[in-house]
Structures are given as structure tokens and as C-alpha cells.
Amino acid sequence: MCTLIAQDKYILTRMHLASLQAGSYIEAEIVSAMCLILNQKNDKRFQEQNMAISKHPNGEFISPKTNKEFRVEDYPSFIPFIDAKKLTSHPYIFAPVCCSGHWWLWVIDTTKRRFHILDPLHKKAPSDQRKQLNKFTGYVISRMRAYAGGEPLKKDEKEKEIKASYVNISGQKSSYYCAIYDEVDHYRVEYASRILFSEMNKERDQAIRASNAIRLSKPSSVLLSLFCQINSTDIETE
User: Fold this and answer.
1) Could you tell me which residue ranges the Ubiquitin-like protease family profile domain spans (predicted)?
2) Who's near 102: CB < 8 A, 6+ residues apart?
3) Does residue 136 contact residue 61 with C-beta atoms inside 8 Å?
């Protein structure tokens, strides 16, 4: 149904696009397709917000690309999203991490200075690379906290040796259940339209000709709630 022309052909089938229906788990191929489209557009904000990974791909403290350490100040587009008050005063910090298509969660007890990882696929770091990436993650969070005016999670060189223990949780039953379950309908619709009507899509003209046959998925219970209907009426009245 969709062939994106990037460095190589990236083909999406009807099954991949069907995962955008309300109540379904979005296939990883859909997320990859959106990344390809955003990268092709040279979206400055998208590139800057993902620069921490691109400059330190394996969790190196000294970037092999810039030969510099991670500094929050080097990511000006990310700074407006830092909630300094919560980051410096809240007893817990939750930080989702994604690498190679897999998600896990860092949980930090800032009072007791204890660090935990919730990973539904692994009970310990599966490789030395993951161990290094986890250390780098702790370092980045600590640097962000210090930038916001709070105490770093560790002091001096110990900041680069932050270790988090893996919490024993229920294992996932597939390779993709780790991802965020997205029930926000307008995102699903946006993904479908941006992928099908992208200039990178070889079948774009065919998608446009057939667009009057496209039907949106049934709205979720959230959008059909009384609260949303009342607010929608208020907006129309204004």
C-alpha cells in the first residue's frame, strides 16, 4: 500500500496501516516510517530533540562526533520542556528510554538516591553496550537536574558511575508490547495521512485519488465522553 523512497525502499503493507485503527497496537514499522519522513524533511526541532542519541550513539560520555561531553546547554530546543520545579523537588523521576526499538523505564528515588529499571523484556542488562547506555542515561538525568538548579544525583566522577538495579516485573509476550499504548485518535489519523500523502510515498498519487474512500476509525470512549462533548459545544458557541 505504501513504498517510501529513502536510502532504500521501505514498504508498508495493509497490515501495518491497519494497526493505526483505534484500540490496536501501532506496529514498529509505522514509527520507523514517521522517523524517515521527519528526517527527510530536515525538521530542525526533530533533529535537535534526538541529538543526544545521535551524538552519543552508544552512551559514550565523550561524543565520538564532537569530542565533547554531554551538556544540557547544547540542546536549546529541549530546554523549554524542562520543568525545573518538578525536576528539583519531586521525590521520584520517571524517564522512559528507547533504543533499537525497545522501551524501558528508569525510576529514580531522589530522596534515597536509589535507581531502578523496569524492563519487561530483560531482568538484567543484556549486553555491555546496554550497561554503558544505562550509565549514560543516569548521567544525563543528573546533568538535567543540576541544570534545573537541583542537586546532581551523584557528585563529581561518581556521576558517571550511576548504576540502576533491574526490577523483576512481568515479562512481555511479544517484541513490541514494551511500547506505549496509544489511544489518542488524532495521532493515529495524522500518522496515516502523513505517511500516505508524503512526497516520499511512491504510491502517493494513487492514495490521493482514493482518498475519498478513506474512512476514519471509530472515536475512542474518551472522545465520546460527556466532558469532551461539553467542551466541544463551548468551543463552537465561542
Assistant:
1) 43-181
2) 121, 175, 178
3) yes
183 is a domain residue: yes
Q: How far apart are CA 153 and CA 174, in angstroms?
A: 34
Per-residue b or e along 156-173, where b marks 16 or more CB atoms closer than 10 Å to that residue's CB: eeebeebebeeeeeeeee
Looking at residue 134, what is its pLDDT? 92
Is there a contact between 139 and 162 (Cβ–Cβ < 8 Å)? yes
Answering whether pTM is above 0.70, one says no
Q: Measuring CA to CA, which residue among 1, 33, 15, 21 is closest to residue 189?
A: 21
pLDDT of 166? 95
Q: At what angle do helices 185-196 and 28-40 cross, to 10 degrees?
A: 60
Domain-embedded: residue 215 = no
Q: What is the number of structural domains in the chain?
A: 1
Question: What average pLDDT does the structure give for the chain?
Answer: 75
Please check whether residue 1 lies inside any domain of the structure: no
- DSSP annotation string for 85-102: HHHHH-SEEEEEEEETTE
Q: Which domain holds residue 136?
A: 26-207
Among residues 30, 39, 41, 15, the alpha carbon closest in space to that of 193 is found at: 30
152 and 132 Cβ atoms separated by less than 8 Å: no
